[in-house]
Each structure stands twice: as C-alpha cells, then as structure tokens.
Write a structure and sequence with these properties.
2 strands, 1% strand, elongated
C-alpha cells in the first residue's frame, strides 16, 4: 500500500484503507516500517490499496462560477425579452452584463437612419423582436405599390384634412412620406389604408392591418409608440367594417397606453416586479421626461375613448389622471404647433361631456334638472373661455361645443313633461338643444363632400346625436313646446335632403363596382334615405295635424328611442352607425 506521504503507525485517511481492511470493515493502520498495514502483515496477506469509490471534483474557480452565473442571467433576460417587455416603459431596464448591454444598444440600420429624421420632431420607433414568419409593417406597405407623388399626396391630405378635425399626432411639415415610412412604418401603413380611395383595396388592407394588430399586440406583445399611433389612426378613420370593432380596439389602445405607462408620471419608487428585475441583474435606465408625442397620444386616446363611451355605453373612457391634466398645460404653453392648441381645446370640451356620461351611467339624477344642467353648462362656458381667439371659429371646435351642449341638455328631452304647469328650466334646455343641433348640422353641411373621407368616427357619432335629437325635438309631446318653432328653426326634412345630396357626391367620388356596400357613403346615403322615409309620416302628422301624408293617414306613435322609428333599416345592423342610433 502506497503511503509515502503518510506517517507510519497512523490510521489510513478516509478512503485510503487497503482492500482487505475495507472488506473486513476494520481499521487500517499503517506500519512504521514496510509498505503494508499492520493487519495484513499480521495475517500474512497481500496488502493492496483500494480503488476509490468516488472522485472528488475539481473545485471551480471564481472566474468559472461568474461565467456560469452570467449565462443564467442571460437566459433570464432572453426569456423576459421574448415575453415582449414593452420598450417604452417609464423606467426602462438594461443588462448588467457589459457585453450584452453593448449588443442591445446596437439597433438596425433603419433606426439609426431615422434617428436623424425624428430628432426634428418625431421620435424614432423602438426596436422589437418579432417572429420572421409574420409580416412586418414595412412588408405590408411594400405589398401595396404606390408612387412617390401619390405618397406625398396621401401625407398632405392626412395633414390638411384628417388632422384638421382630430389632431392626435403631429407630423412636422419638413418630414417627407419616405422619412415617415422609415420612422413610423405602422403609422404610415394605417394612413395609406384609411386614405385609399378604392374601397375594395381598402377593405383588403383593413383585414391585413387587423391581422397585424393581433400578431403584434396579442402574440408578440411588441408594442411601442408607432404601434399605438397606428392603431389610433386606424380606428379613427376606418370608415367601414362588417362587424362592430370600436369597443374592442378602444380597449386595445388603452391597454397599450397602460403598458407603456405614458398616462401617468414617471414612478419614483420601484414596484415589486421592478425590484425583482434588479435582483436578477437588470437595472433601471435614467428616466427621461415625457415626450410631446406621448402627451398628444394620451390626450388623443382620451378623446377617442370618451366619444366611444358616450355613444355606445359599453366601455369607460381612459381614466383621467393628474399627469394628463399637466399635459394640457404643457402642450398649450409650448405652442409647438397649432394642432396642439386645437387638441387641448377639444379635450377640455370633452372633459365636460365625459362628466355627463358618468352621471348617466351611474344614474345620478337626484339633483333637480336645473341644477344638473346649469352646473355643467357653467363648466362648458369655462372651457369655452379658454379657447384661443384664432380657434374660436374653427369648425372642429364649434362642432364639439355644439355636441357638448346637446349632451348636457339631452336630459330635458328624456324627461317627461309636467301635466299641469310648464317647467321653464326644461323649456330653456329644450331650446338650447334645438339651437345646438341646428348649429352642429349647419357646420356639418359646410364641410365639402370631398373632405368626408377625412372625417373621423368622432364627428360621425356627433352627427347621429344631432340628427336624432332634432327628430325628437320635432316630435316632442309637450303642450308647452312649440313644434312649429322647431320646423321654422331647423326643418329636419330639408336638412336630411341636403345631407343626402352631399353623401351622394361623396359616394360617387369613391364608387366601387365590386361591392357597393363597402362604400361607406353609399351606406350612409341609404341610411339617411331610410331615416327620412321612416320619420316623414310622423313629422308631417305633428306639423300638419289631420293631413294625410302621401295619401295614407299616419298612425305612427312616438317611441322613447329613435331606433323604433327606423324599422325600414333592415340590413344595416352590422354598420357601426346603427349602433349609435340604438344607444340614443
């Protein structure tokens, strides 16, 4: 037994006993002389060293342990990134591994080239890792051939027509269509889709964009400001859909804003999840101030979702926060563009409308109607006084003001008349509603028919409210209400004829031989014609009692909802405009 390094007469170390002692489970004691142990020498046996049952592994060095830990952290980071961590969080995160951090900061060439473009006013898009099996926004755009001249025309029309009534994004005048396509590919894709005149091609693009939204948002979770602005543009000016979609996409937009965290201040303390990220090797980047683009997007989202909430009563608007209140002041004080002042004015008006929505939603009608309307009217007057002088006659501002007055005084139309004496406050509200509906429809008729394609759903919702309220005022059963005054002030039949003429002109501009129903203005034209056909007997009966209409005595009774009088509108139940009529 080899024992050159072990003193004789001492027990063999653990695992170094000879074979015979190991089998006998005896203590193996090395002799002071010779190479065998005392037991083997006494029994005159061959002393053979035992084969070790296990080998002690080599203790890893500190450098190898560090490399192993870094590999684990890299694996965790990869899983977090593949899960779609939003790139626009208020507190973003970096790797502690210097090599990975350097790799992450190296973006594709298109982002580097667009950074110089966007530094003048539009921030560059955040890079995201999407599966290559699904089309990117640039792939979708490249599948639609468009000349440079046509692209510039689309951008110019979007600036001058679409953003004139709904300024949810600012595109500096010096930015070209090619630059915008590189910096905001998805926004550009949605712009070209909503402004495509050919209805069949537009329907194809709408389907592709819907598929792309589902892939990016729900599968890849690769959201950023480009995706947010693109979806907001898509839902704002998508002029036709075979299925109602606004409620669903409104939730999507609000979810993206919440994930990006741009609707509130930058948090000063870490949440539990953020603290966990720090523990696994991620640390927060230095928080940056909110950009003007983010502030516009949040305020624009409130304007869109509040309009949808009031019209359909299925969702609530984006929750108003102190940060959004701060954004109103910042945008107004900065005066970066006239569109910012317009957006701030529209949002202030919509805030009053949103309060009416919450009162109606919660059924809070305990205060007297006069107190209810006077308080809200005072708030609207305060918002009106803050509108800049150069915007006080702006078409969008005037239409939103008229719509707000209609919404405030709508309770007077819904409230039944007193049997004995007239309610003077109610009559004042009814007259205010009449003036507001007439004003709104006058502003609508002043819009050239060729510009209808640039009108957002917000104004289409307001159109439905104005025309329905005017019909209710024209047929209101109240002895104290002068219906002849309504006829002389705003003749609803003449107004419908004028609207029908303008819609026919718009429908002819984007005529489709493949599927006329895909032409939203054809759909709107049929709706207006059906409204006139359904409402005319009742209106004529009210205006001229005892006189037959078209040779047939009308016996149509007034219903609480205007939709009850629109029975001939069969086949329009999938159109989103009918959803609005049904909720009023």
């Amino acid at each position: 037994m080899q024992s050159s390094q072990i003193p004789r007469g001492t027990p063999a170390p653990y695992g170094r006993a000879c074979v015979n002692c190991s089998h006998a489970k005896c203590k193996c004691v090395l002799r002071t002389t010779g190479s065998d142990c005392e037991r083997c020498h006494r029994l005159n046996k061959e002393c053979r060293p035992s084969i070790p049952a296990r080998k002690r592994g080599k203790r890893p060095s500190a450098s190898s342990r560090t490399a192993h830990l870094e590999a684990k952290l890299d694996n965790i980071v990869t899983m977090l990134q593949s899960g779609g961590a939003p790139s626009g969080l208020a507190v973003d995160w970096e790797l502690t591994n210097a090599s990975e951090r350097q790799k992450a900061t190296q973006g594709p060439a298109v982002e580097a080239s667009s950074h110089a473009i966007m530094s003048a006013g539009i921030p560059s898009p955040c890079t995201t890792n999407s599966p290559s099996t699904h089309p990117s926004p640039l792939d979708l755009y490249s599948s639609v051939p468009i000349s440079p001249e046509a692209a510039e025309d689309i951008l110019n029309r979007f600036r001058t027509q679409n953003l004139k009534y709904l300024p949810i994004v600012y595109i500096p005048p010096h930015v070209t269509s090619q630059q915008l396509r590189q910096a905001k590919p998805f926004l550009w894709t949605c712009m070209t889709a909503v402004l495509t005149p050919e209805t069949k091609e537009r329907e194809i693009q709408f389907k592709k964009i819907n598929e792309l939204i589902n892939q990016i948002v729900f599968v890849d979770h690769a959201i950023n400001m480009d995706i947010l602005l693109g979806i907001m543009t898509f839902i704002s000016w998508t002029t036709y859909s075979r299925k109602p979609f606004l409620n669903f996409h409104a939730h999507v937009v609000m979810g993206i804003i919440n994930d990006l965290g741009i609707d509130k201040e930058i948090p000063k303390e870490h949440t539990t999840l953020q603290a966990f990220k720090c523990a696994v090797g991620l640390y927060p980047r230095t928080p940056t101030a909110r950009t003007m683009e983010e502030r516009r997007a949040v305020l624009g989202c409130f304007l869109l979702t509040s309009s949808i909430a009031l019209a359909m009563f299925r969702i609530d608007a984006l929750r108003w926060t102190p940060h959004m209140e701060e954004s109103l002041s910042i945008l107004m004080d900065a005066k970066e563009c006239i569109e910012d002042e317009l957006l701030v004015s529209l949002v202030k008006i919509q805030l009053v409308v949103d309060r009416v929505y919450h009162l109606r939603r919660d059924g809070d009608t305990q205060p007297p109607m006069a107190f209810y309307t006077q308080a809200l009217q005072s708030q609207l007057d305060a918002a009106k006084s803050q509108i800049p002088t150069h915007l006080q006659q702006h078409g969008a501002v005037l239409m939103h003001l008229a719509n707000a007055e209609l919404t405030i005084h709508d309770i007077a139309i819904r409230t039944p008349a007193l049997p004995n004496s007239p309610d003077l406050h109610r009559l004042e509200s009814l007259y205010a509603s009449l003036q507001a509906s007439k004003a709104w429809l006058d502003h609508w008729n002043a819009i050239p028919p060729e510009n209808y394609i640039g009108i957002s759903f917000v104004l289409f919702f307001q159109f439905c409210r104005a025309i329905v309220d005017l019909y209710k005022l024209s047929t209101l059963e109240d002895p104290a209400w002068d219906k002849n005054l309504v006829r002389d002030t705003a003749n609803i039949l003449e107004i419908l004829d004028h609207i029908r003429c303008n819609l026919r002109k718009s429908a002819e501009r984007i005529a489709s031989q493949n599927d006329p129903e895909l032409n939203v203005f054809n759909t709107g034209l049929k709706m207006v014609m059906s409204l006139r056909q359904a409402w005319e007997p009742k209106i004529m009966e009210v205006w001229y009692p005892g006189v037959a209409c078209n040779g047939v005595e009308s016996d149509i009774s007034q219903a609480d909802s205007a939709l009850a009088d629109v029975a001939p509108l069969s086949g329009f139940d999938e159109a989103w405009m009918m959803e609005i009529l049904g909720s009023m």
